[in-house]
Design a protein that fits this description.
Chain lengths: 570, 341
């Protein structure tokens, strides 16, 4: 998020009457309606299908068909009900752990003078470049029943399958997301308050509990809500390391695929939607307050830290960075060794994928991701532009629609797509396009938020000048706005690309015989027990995403914008 | 800027073309639940033998495949099914989702391996097997099991792993075989009163995990995560070839088995191409290639793989396919109530 949010209320004067403004009168409503329709049809309509199937007999809408039988069945069957408690437990514990770990990490980055900050900042962002399954894959290799550390170094019997495994992997998965929020908060809050308290004689502990923590409280809430949401909706990690421990996301999948109970799947989707929607609302409400806390006078000068503080924070950061590096190293090394942990000779065998998809899946994933990247970043930029500078009639409504996808779990959206669009007349069903659309919609929120915050940075007078010189909206957009937001556009592109390469839950219901995706191949390979090949597929995805990030850096440098690294993506 | 815009446009156009490529070949879309590694092999052969077909396949677990079919009932995406458990297949005939088709060479397949009207034609038989890890058995000083009953021994506590019958066809055939074997009166009483549940409850005390797929118990065991994996026979030979320390035990009480069959879908969009593929799928060449993996194929006179015992030397469990197909939902419900925690 960009901190320099310059609210401006400059009203734009369309004083010049020319033929061009005629186009304007038409183009703005057209674009607005297009975006509203897009979100209606590809977000609300699938959600409506899910609601229908869970509340009405046979999915047929009508008063006489209304039934709570599905919910009754859910709440009276003990193992499905357990999934709810499991999900809440996992998410709560994960949230607490993540916030504690990340708070001190962000504190070290924002408030101390330790060296190697760029390194630490880049490392903690790493989980973003891989599907949310690497953590589980690596943890099994390291701490599984025959794990390298547990069984071979420590020689202990330890069972990681279940809640412990899920919590560990979710914590590692959520670090970057929480970090971005807490880092922004901690660097924005006025550090002189702490200094003042200290010079008035407060102990460091008192400063921490009375000044530092309260001033960051909105950031903490917001990060906690986001972590909770990410954990409760994640599918990749629980399905790999959960063992017999079911959570809501895996239970939806099990009901649909094992028992063919689409109605119960839809019902559990609704149940999953409730906590995730609540976490989202909290985040939405709190993040508005966060910005009001940030004063323009905040000074980024950090006083030199005490030696002891410096050493302990450095050690701490190395520890966190080390655990993330170990995860990635395990997966990458695991893809090259013959039989982990029996035979350490190196081999490329695992890259000879024992699956129908294989390399064509990677190829398809790259193409789909490029299209998602281009379309996604373009649509969100246009939407942001129209909303921000032209203030269409129902701006608030569109804004609400476009932040909603963040609250809807990917798996639920995927199920909704099957239910809503699997009709002969939806020609796009079964083609790659439904996957493209699904990924763009699922990640719409962050795309549009970063577009808006970027557009707010463009001086409105530039645009006013363009208009008073006779430029119409289309021209202004392509000649002024687009070039000025090029770096943001590419960042959005990389964000969409990255999400599209790594997303699992949203598209697992949508892959087909004609469209295989690399991230889904990982799940399938792992399901069949080809863990090493699953690692190999992960490694391929990681390499491709890293290449794309490298390209972004080059583009950003060439176009004169400052590369902001991964942190700018969120 | 212009360049970037142009580039973006080009990429879009090219990708549009790619997405809508119309190849000269006839497309056929196949759903299969044969194991990925075999399918890769078979498909190579199929592409050689059927050069004018553009074969597009997806591998789904037994449960997933059924869910796809149900979801796509009004708008079938696939043309045919290749190698899917007969137990599940049988349930889809009354739903009116399959079309009868007797592929070329249908007469060669013995009557017990095909549906009389041609709704499905079985290609192979695969059997349940226990796959222990010899290194783990040695390290923990555990005895080599010889059948299901041995697994009740408390020394195996948390050392066993078995597939979840709801998602895995292998898991289901294991449970079904026990239900039929352990209770002679299984037909005359409700599913939940079957004596085999008591046996399974005992077994559950030793069970480390119920897992989604049928091959994974063997693979996780091979990786040393468990001591004995309840899985199926051919996964053993592929693990052995890769150098894992595994053994093969066909339960002495009788090995449960399942037929895997092909079928044509009603409303298939590429019916002609699908029929060509189904003809190929029961040809001698195809069957010989299945026989490299499967314990037995339905084409008479083809020997199974060399590293597995010959089919006629194995004691197979008495399976009752019509009964287990009819009672599938009930069996799964009972199992889930008892064993999902």
């Amino acid at each position: 998020m960009n901190t320099a949010l310059k609210e401006y209320t400059a009203s734009i004067d369309y004083g010049i009457s020319s033929a061009r403004t005629e186009i304007d009168r038409f183009i703005i409503p057209a674009v607005t309606i297009f975006i509203a329709l897009l979100l209606f049809f590809f977000m609300l309509f699938p959600m409506w299908s899910i609601l229908q199937l869970s509340f009405f007999k046979g999915g047929q809408f009508g008063i006489s068909n209304f039934t709570l039988a599905n919910f009754h069945k859910y709440f009276t069957t003990s193992y499905t009900l357990k999934a709810l408690w499991h999900s809440l437990y996992i998410s709560t514990v994960t949230t607490i752990i993540v916030i504690v770990i990340v708070f001190f990490f962000a504190y070290a980055m924002a408030r101390t003078t330790i060296s190697g900050k760029t390194f630490f900042r880049n490392i903690i962002m790493m989980p973003l470049i891989a599907p949310s399954i690497v953590q589980a894959l690596a943890l099994i290799y390291l701490f599984g029943r025959n794990g390298l550390i547990t069984a071979h170094l420590l020689k202990i019997d330890w069972n990681i399958y279940g809640s412990v495994g899920i919590i560990f992997s979710e914590v590692l998965y959520c670090l970057p997301h929480a970090f971005v929020i807490l880092y922004t908060t901690l660097s924005a809050v006025d550090i002189r308050l702490d200094e003042a308290a200290e010079s008035l004689g407060a102990t460091p502990f008192k400063v921490f509990t009375r000044i530092t923590l309260p001033s960051a409280k909105y950031g903490i809430f917001s990060a906690a809500a986001l972590t909770f949401n990410l954990t409760i909706t994640d599918f990749g990690n629980p399905v790999v390391i959960g063992g017999n421990y079911n959570v809501l996301a895996t239970e939806i999948y099990a009901q649909v695929t094992n028992l063919y109970r689409f109605d119960l799947g839809a019902t559990i989707s609704i149940i999953l939607l409730v906590p995730s929607l609540m976490a989202f609302m909290l985040n939405y409400y709190v993040s508005r307050k966060t910005f009001s806390m940030i004063s323009g006078a905040a000074k980024p000068v950090i006083p030199p830290s005490r030696p002891l503080q410096k050493v302990s924070y450095t050690l701490y950061c190395y520890l966190v960075a080390f655990s993330i590096i170990v995860i990635f190293a395990t997966v990458i090394i695991g893809s090259f060794v013959k039989i982990w942990p029996y035979d350490w000779s190196l081999t490329l065998d695992h890259y000879n994928f024992p699956s129908i998809g294989g390399y064509s899946a990677i190829y398809t994933s790259v193409w789909v991701s490029l299209i998602v990247g281009i379309c996604g970043s373009f649509i969100t930029l246009v939407a942001g532009y129209v909303m921000e500078t032209r203030k269409p009639f129902f701006k608030q409504f569109i804004y609400l629609l476009s932040v909603m996808p963040a609250a809807i779990p990917g798996l639920v959206m995927g199920l909704g797509y099957i239910l809503a669009f699997n009709k002969p007349y939806y020609f796009f069903y079964g083609t790659p396009w439904i996957i493209v659309i699904n990924i763009i919609i699922c990640n719409f929120t962050l795309g549009i938020l970063s577009s808006i915050s970027n557009l707010r940075n463009i001086d409105p007078s530039v645009e006013e000048a363009a208009i008073s010189l006779g430029g119409d909206t289309i021209r202004t957009f392509f000649r002024i706005i687009f070039p000025l937001s090029r770096v943001a556009f590419f960042q959005n592109f990389v964000y969409f690309f990255m999400r599209s390469m790594t997303t699992i839950s949203a598209v697992i219901f949508l892959v087909s015989a004609t469209v295989h995706l690399a991230a889904i191949e990982i799940i399938m390979l792992d399901n069949d027990g080809w863990t090493a090949s699953a690692n190999a597929m992960c490694t391929c995805i990681i390499v491709i995403v890293l290449i794309m990030l490298g390209v972004l850096q080059i583009v950003a440098k060439k176009t004169g914008g400052r590369p902001e690294g991964l942190a700018a993506e969120i | 800027m212009k360049k970037a815009g142009l580039l973006a446009l080009c990429v879009l156009l090219v990708s549009l073309c790619l997405a809508g490529t119309v190849s000269a070949k006839d497309k056929v879309i196949i759903y299969t639940s044969l194991e990925n590694e075999e399918v890769v092999d078979y498909l190579k052969l199929a592409k050689q033998d059927l050069p004018d077909l553009d074969i597009q396949a997806i591998r789904l677990s037994t449960g997933e495949l059924g869910a796809r079919m149900m979801a796509e009932k009004d708008n079938p995406q696939a043309d045919c099914i290749w190698g899917w458990a007969v137990t599940n297949m049988a349930g889809f005939i009354p739903k009116g989702m399959l079309a009868p088709y007797k592929p070329k060479g249908w007469d060669k397949i013995p009557a017990e391996f095909k549906e009389s009207e041609g709704y499905w034609t079985a290609i192979d038989l695969y059997a349940a097997a226990l796959v222990p890890n010899t290194k783990v058995l040695e390290a923990k000083n555990l005895p080599m099991p010889s059948g299901w009953n041995d697994l009740l021994n408390p020394v195996y506590k948390d050392m066993l792993i078995m597939p979840n019958p709801a998602s895995s066809g292998t898991g289901f055939l294991q449970i079904a075989s026990l239900l039929v074997m352990l209770d002679p009166d299984y037909k005359s009483k409700p599913v939940e009163a079957n004596k085999a549940w008591d046996f399974l409850k005992e077994l559950d005390k030793n069970m480390g995990q119920y897992i989604k797929s049928g091959s994974k118990p063997a693979k996780l065991t091979a990786a040393g995560e468990y001591a004995v994996g309840c899985s199926f026979a051919f996964v053993y030979s592929s693990l052995k070839k890769k150098g894992f320390p595994v053994a093969l035990v066909l339960p002495k009480e009788g090995a449960g088995y399942e037929l895997e069959a092909n079928a044509l879908l009603k409303g298939a969009k590429n019916e002609a191409a699908a029929k060509k593929f189904l003809d190929w799928a029961i040809s001698k060449r195809a069957m010989e290639s299945y026989a490299k993996f499967k314990l037995g194929v339905t084409y008479p006179g083809i020997q199974g793989p060399k590293d597995l015992p010959a089919l006629n030397t194995i004691k197979l469990a008495p399976m009752d396919f019509p009964w287990q197909s009819e009672n599938r939902e009930k069996i799964l419900e009972t199992w889930q109530k008892l064993f999902l925690k």
